[in-house]
From TrEMBL:
Protein name: diguanylate cyclase
GO molecular function list: diguanylate cyclase activity
EC number: 2.7.7.65
Alphabetically ordered keywords of this record: GTP-binding, Membrane, Nucleotide-binding, Nucleotidyltransferase, Transferase, Transmembrane, Transmembrane helix
Cofactor: Mg(2+)
TM annotation in the entry: 15-35, 42-60, 84-105, 126-148, 192-216, 228-250, 271-294
Record field: catalytic activity: 2 GTP = 3',3'-c-di-GMP + 2 diphosphate
Phylogenetic placement of the source organism: Bacteria, Pseudomonadati, Pseudomonadota, Gammaproteobacteria, Enterobacterales
Gene3D superfamilies: 3.30.70.270
Domain of life (superkingdom): Bacteria
Amino acid sequence: MTEPVQPFFRPERTLINAFGIIILTSLFYFFGAMLRLIDELSLFWPLNAVMAGVFARYAFLNRPHYYLLSYAAMLVYDAITTNWGVASLAINLSNMVFIVTFAMLMQRDASQVKGDERPPLNVLKLFLYCLIASALCALVGTLASIGIDKYKLWPLFADWFSEQFSTGVLILPWVLTVRWPRSKTLVSPDMLWPFMAVVASVGASVLIGGAGSLAFPLAALIWCAIRYSLPVTCLVMLITGVAEIVLVGNSTIQFNTAAPLETAQLFSARLGIAIMALCPLMVSTSVASINALMLQVARRANYDYLTGALSRSGLLETLKKPPFADTRYGSLCVMLIDIDYFKRINDSYGHECGDAVLTAFGERAIRAVGTKGLVARMGGEEFVVVCPGVSLKEGLELAEQLRQRIADYPFNWQEKTLSITISIGLSHQDCIEPGVIDAFTRLMPVADRHLYRSKQSGRNQVTSTSDVGLGSGKVISETI
């Protein structure tokens, strides 16, 4: 199993976090400044949405000193590249208003979710929070820009608000959902068709023009929402929205061929693109929720709800699938495990205590086996551990470690201490063919016989076998 990729921002790395915030702020400030179209107004300003997403995603960054670092980086960039002077304090304050407002609203929702799981993306709340943050940002930014820009109050407010709202709606879903891929994914040619349809529809928008042309990519984006994961759909939506805004801003997509681009047209285009993003994002989140529900149902079918181990059917299904079904393993070790005197526990302390013992054992067994094999509950107090590619010596060592771990750590129940032990029957075979299911089927009866011998010999022990003469029924065993 591959180790999960650690995020760049982590609570214990204060200096690196600070450095990252400064770099991100400076980079996206520069990018937005390069897209200034109408005097001092930027065509597309990604800074606020990116930083708001970062602060919303990592709760530990919501500290005054991190916010101040981002604000200071904006002021330094303005001092170097503009002559706004004192007005820069208020203009960049408007940026911080958007960032802090959105981050705080999202963190309020996240604090209401129990556990460490990240709350699912709520598209309607994201739209609402973008609307609130954009309105407050536009109000502060408009008042700060009156002395700099030649536009009056309403055109300034319309441009600030539409830009902040559209940029937030396009960028924030991707920033909040993007994850480092856990494994390499091969992209088949069929998977490219939805994206190619988006490209073609944007091309049609350029060729045909008119206000309605902005909605041309909608059907293709819904196709992407159905076929792609939520982060990929958000990325495609971001690319499409930015492309349309830039094309409108440069009059490549024209609403009226007889008139040059006006702020009102750009205002309408931005809001239209932002609203259009609602549909594919809602479809994508719905598909993601359905897939998560199906995965949960499948997990309930394949895993034992009490212990967290695989169920009997789940184990067999797992062994039939890659990597177990198509990999040539040099050996296979099967351990059949039984909790000693489990019926006595149920009779003396009740079935609730018995369930608690099963749960504790399942957790300890899964931790002890780790990535070396699979743990499954076969029924009642009987478990099996399947370890492909493990030698007889390694299997014996693992079985003995598991036995000792259970015996050395008593189980506490209602102020009583219960000493739990297990008996293990171990079977092993070398030189198995591709796939392990057939070898597992042959080794299970052998492990069962040795489990019986462990019980007959006094319990709390491991009885094992080598693979010598398995085909003829001859068994070599030893007791540890």
